[in-house]
Amino acid sequence: MAERGWDRRFEQYAAEVIGRHSIPGAAVALAYNGTVVYERGFGHRDAARHLPVTPATRFGLGSVTKSFPALAIMQLQETGTLSVHDPVTR
Questions:
Q1: Model's pTM, two decimal places?
Q2: Beta strands per DSSP E along 1-90
C-alpha cells in the first residue's frame, strides 16, 4: 500500500458512479493488515441541509440485510450442510 495515487483515481471513479446512479451518499473504508488506510464519505447524509457523509455516518439498513442470511442459508442447503426446514437454532 506504499504506492499512492490510487486514492485519487478511486475518488474520481466513485464520483462518477455516484453521479450516474443518483446515489445520495456513501462511505468507504479500506483496511490493510487490520489498519484502516483509507476512509472517506461521499455525497450528503441530509441533502436538504447539505450535511456531508463522513466516515462516521451511520446508515439505516433496514430490510436490505435480510437478503444476506437468506442467500447464505440457500447456499448451505445446496451443499447439504443445512436445510430451510431446519429449526432456527441449528
A1: 0.60
A2: 25-32, 35-46, 51-52
